[in-house]
Every structure is written in C-alpha cells, then in structure tokens.
Amino acid sequence: xxxxxxxxxxxxxxxxxxxxxxxxxxxxxxxxxxxxxxxxxxxxxxxxxxxxxxxxxxxxxxxxxxxxxxxxxxxxxxxxxxxxxxxxxxxxxxxxxxxxxxxxxxxxxxxxxxxxxxxxxxxxxxxxxxxxxxxxxxxxxxxxxxxxxxxxxxxxxxxxxxxxxxxxxxxxxxxxxxxxxxxxxxxxxxxxxxxxxxxxxxxxxxxxxxxxxxxxxxxxxxxxxxxxxxxxxxxxxxxxxxxxxxxxxxxxxxxxxxxxxxxxxxxxxxxxxxxxxxxxxxxxxxxxxxxxxxxxxxxxxxxxxxxxxxxxxxxxxxxxxxxxxxxxxxxxxxxxxxxxxxxxxxxxxxxxxxxxxxxxxxxxxxxxxxxxxxxxxxxxxxxxxxxxxxxxxxxxxxxxxxxxxxxxxxxxxxxxxxxxxxxxxxxxxxxxxxxxxxxxxxxx
Length: 444
Ligand code: SF4
Fold this sequence. Notes:
- By secondary structure, the protein is of the alpha/beta class.
- The chain has 15 helices and 22 strands.
- The chain has helices at residues 13-26, 54-68, 81-87, 89-94, 110-116, 130-138, 166-169, 178-190, 217-225, 245-253, 270-275, 282-295, 314-326, 353-376, 438-443; strands at 3-9, 31-33, 42-47, 76-80, 100-102, 123-125, 148-152, 154-155, 174-175, 195-199, 207-209, 214-216, 232-236, 260-262, 300-302, 304-307, 333-336, 382-390, 396-400, 406-410, 419-427, 431-436.
- It has a six-stranded parallel sheet with strand order 2-1-3-4-5-6, sandwiched between helices. Strands 18-19-20-22-21 form a five-stranded mixed barrel. The protein has a three-stranded parallel sheet with strand order 7-10-13, with helices on both faces.
C-alpha cells in the first residue's frame, strides 16, 4: 500500500515552494500527498520564524497532531523550515513526538532520512548545504501545475537587518544557475503555468556568474518574457538596495512584467533605518519610487512596516506616517516589532505596548484606506484577470488582476488559465467582485 504524507505549510511563498518540492522528492519513495491531516504516515510541519511566538506555535501544532493520532499509529513527525533551523536539537529534546528536525538547506536529504528512519533514531539535519540542495532538486522535475507558479531563484541573505532571523535560518545569499532556473521555468510552463513568480529572500540580489557573464534578475525576466505561453512575470521579495537600473529598465521594456512592486521600506525615518541596519535612506527609496513612476505612472507599490522598533520616537513614527501619506501603497504589511532570539535587536528595550498598538492602528488606518481607495477605483471598470482556479465548494472562479488583487466571479472551469475581462461591481479591502464581460464568452 502507498504511504501518505501530509505537509502543513506556514509563512512565506518560499515555504510553499519548498513544500511542493518536498512532495516532488518523496513521491520517488512511493509517498503520495494526503489531503487529510488525520490520515498520514508522515506529517511534516514546514515552519516560519517571522511572526511572534513562532516556536510556541509549533509546539501547539504538534499538540494537535498528537490528539489527532491518539490511539493510532503515530506518523513520522518532521519539523522543517526556519523554526527547525533556529531551534534544532532543543526541539528534539523538548518534544519527544518529533522524529526529524530538518533545516531549509537540508531538504535534499529527506528521502534518505525517511528511508533510514526505520531504526527510529531521532535525527537532526540543519547543515547549510544550499548548493547540494539545489543540485539535488534540479534533477527532480517540478510537478507543480498551478496557473500562477512560484520559482525560487535565490535563497539566503547577507544583509543582517537587526531584527531579522533569515541570515541565520536560511544562510548566506545563494543564486541558482541561470540555465537551471530556465529549465525549471520551462517545465512549469509545460505543466500549465501562465504566470511565474520569481522568489528569493533578496530576489533582486540575484547574481549568477558563468565563464562568460554575470546574470542578474533582469536577464531572467527578459528571457522568461520570450516564452510565448507565459503571460505574466512577478518577483518577490526585493530589497531597495538591489533595485539596480537594469531591473528598473525592465518596467519600460518588458510588457509581461506586472506593474506592481512589493518593496519593503520598514520605516520612514532615516534614524530608524540606520538602527535597523537597512543600508538605505528614505530619500534613496523615494528616488527609486520616482524613477519607476516616471517610466510608467500606473505602476503601484506595496511595502512592509515595522512600528515601535526600539528607539522609535513619536517624531520617527510621524515620518513613517508622512511617507505613507506621500506614497499611496496599495497593499502593505505592518507589524509591531517583536524580538527574535539571536538577532541584534533581541535584547533592546522595547516600546510600551499601548504606544506600539496606537501606532500600529494609526498606520493601518492610512494603509487600509489607500488599499480600499485603489480597489474602489476599479468599480464599473473592465479589468484583465488571469483566472487561477475554482473556489472550493462554490461555483465561483478566482483570479488576479495585474496588481495582484483577488478577483472573484461566476464562471465555468474552462476559463482557468486564461486572461479574461471582468467588469468589477463591488469591492472590499481585500477583494474585487465582478462579472465576466460578454465578449469573453466567445473567446473561451
Ligand atoms: S534583507 Fe533584512 S529583512 Fe530581508 S531577509 Fe535579509 S536580513 Fe531579513
């Protein structure tokens, strides 16, 4: 009988990509994907360390799994991802239910670990073997068949922002070979991908050198655009310091690159940016914004904000508010600072909780208003939507416009994978709701 694996994924798109690649790998051992978390021979938690209390959430999840399998054969319990990397042996010591701890740069070892698990010794694998990992996965076809597919091109980070664990959990910056990325893109496209989202912790720091030249993300974007079946290209997450002119130029020359850029700034105060070790100034950020807007004023931005970072005064916070009023980010993430063990900011004096909450509410009021204003601007307009899938249990379809807004409408499944025009009738802060324009009926 075939063995089943269930993977629960937390956090960013890179974890989602990794989980799919783990499925591709363990399939070779005869594992099939289980949709039922209560019925698996192997249960893998792919964890994220970005949010508050990440470690406790993992123990909580394991508590749930234990209950699910009470009185039955327990699954092989694997904790993977950034929490596994950060906590490693300590997790094995604290929670005997865990069988394998697997760091993000050791995923290529998963098949061997599962094969050898028969002797039931606890295993911890948290080496930074990034090159071996990608060499291993380059030999395994990416079976993902999503209309919008992720493709990791770069991992790790050398920037060491004071608040962030990524350099410790994902290791130093590594860029995959140009031709391997293209080979994977080709298989995604032959599986039906119409949109590819290039991923990396510092995706725009992508740099791969062979004997002849250095390839940057701009080279990748331009090459991908030559595949006629591929309709849209995106990339995330970018660092302002790596927004080089060749990449900015893509917005003027490349019609498939979507006019929406997620570019985290974190704060509108230079003092705070320095304390966070972000290595750019507000003025430099605005210059990038203006350059891109000059190329095409309809390009929109989203960002990330940390409020109440240690040392943030009212004046610093007001500078962030002013920036948010100036640049109407159409979709952003905002959080109260929370310390991550092992980072430079871990032991700094924190700002009072009430002040932090007040600041978060204030900034979100502005961010959410910009988001809603943007969404309302689509009402009664016909917009181009790439249809991604059917919504589970409903007769509705889900797609995205060029700005990544979710668009929901009634329609038949034969629209999936197509670009169609949707007339928007209603919106809320997160989604647009509309109807298929009549002329699409003939095209489908
Ligand atoms: S650039 Fe900063 S925030 Fe982004 S992954 Fe690197 S250290 Fe973390």
